[in-house]
Design brief:
GO terms for molecular function: ATP binding; ATP hydrolysis activity. This protein is of the alpha/beta class. Helices cover 43% and strands 15% of the residues. The protein is built from 14 helices and eleven strands. It has a five-stranded parallel β-sheet. Helix 2 crosses helix 11. The longest helix is centred in the C-terminal third of the chain and has 17 residues. It is globular, with a radius of gyration of 20 Å.
Length: 324
């Protein structure tokens, strides 16, 4: 079995071009960039939780510029209204009709910045967009143009002035992970790059939106063997029976594991998913979907440790995963 650290070499040519371009701006975060592109290719969304200033916003902007997509930023504040996110109908005295003015969520790449600083009502305005890829205003449903990726950032919940995201909304994010501080050498590289001009200003698209959409179609054709599907189900089911867990992962987590596995296999230039793909992705997909019971919280248990125990307990299937 390959080690996790050895499983981040991307071989798919177009994806490699994307990662190489994004790394001109984002230093030392290859794994985080890779996970973000998995979400983009599989139709999922990302929740980044970290302290301010570690490059969350810059990574989202670099992804948007690299694919040439429309980029919008929503700065979540306590007074933000749902219509500020989804859009609003405005009456025109010239035509004597209402015209819909799209909100910032109707873009290809959306940065939902500090999402846990706004009220739950406004947070909920994102639910339909995250799950259905559409917004409904004034009784009319409007489809958001593909590709569509929301990358939400939030400060750690112990920071003042934050509203923890409800479980229903957390469940709609494919991944949750941290960016983390750079090493000293990486931070020096950042200083050298921005000394005269920020590299984001000279970043250009390396693929067309049509190419990206074609890649998304190819991802859906990646073969998933029945043994691999059963492995996914066994992992998710085990989270529901773990003694430290109050609420385990839902069937949406099983779907997320399969779709992310297809995207990851595609990035590795494979036409089939292997169990190691699922094992590698599981911590990033499951950690924000589990709720620990009171006893476990008092003993300082973590969802990360629970997932490690689940992966150790569930046997890895053997046999051929390639389509026959």
């Amino acid at each position: 079995m390959q080690k996790q650290s050895e499983r981040s070499v991307v071989e798919q040519p177009l994806v490699y071009k994307l990662i190489e371009n994004i790394e001109k701006v984002v230093v030392g975060k290859g794994k985080e960039i890779e996970l973000s592109l998995i979400a983009l290719l599989s139709g999922g969304h990302v929740l980044l939780e970290d302290v301010p200033g570690v490059g969350k916003t810059m990574m989202v902007r670099a992804i948007a510029r690299s694919i040439g997509g429309e980029f919008k930023r929503i700065q979540f504040t306590p007074d933000l209204l749902p219509s500020d996110v989804t859009g609003v109908s405005v009456f025109s005295q010239k035509t004597m009709e209402f015209h819909f003015r799209p909100g910032p969520v109707m873009a290809n790449i959306v940065l939902a910045d500090e999402i846990n600083r706004t009220s739950p009502k406004t947070q909920a305005a994102l639910l339909e967009a995250l799950e259905e890829g559409s917004v409904t205003t004034d009784g009319e449903t409007r489809i958001i143009q593909q590709p569509f990726l929301v990358m939400a950032t939030q400060n750690p919940i112990e920071y003042g002035g934050t509203y923890p995201l409800p479980e229903a909304q957390l469940d709609r994010f494919l991944f949750k992970f941290r960016i983390g501080y750079p090493t000293k050498s990486e931070e020096l590289e950042v200083l050298n790059r921005v000394e005269k001009q920020h590299p984001i200003e000279t970043l250009f698209p390396v693929i067309e939106l049509d190419e990206l959409l074609e890649m998304k179609k190819q991802v859906k054709t990646i073969f998933v063997n029945e043994n691999v599907k059963q492995y996914i189900i066994n992992i998710v089911s085990e989270t529901r029976h773990h003694p430290a867990v109050f609420l385990g992962a839902s069937p949406r987590a099983s779907i997320a594991l399969m779709k992310a596995g297809q995207a990851y296999a595609f990035m590795q230039d494979r036409d089939y998913v292997i169990p190691d793909d699922i094992k590698y992705l599981a911590p990033y997909i499951l950690q924000h979907r589990l709720i620990l019971n009171s006893e476990s919280k008092l003993s300082n248990a973590s969802t990360g440790r629970v997932i490690e125990e689940v992966l150790e307990l569930v046997g890895i299937p053997t046999g051929k995963e390639r389509a026959q």
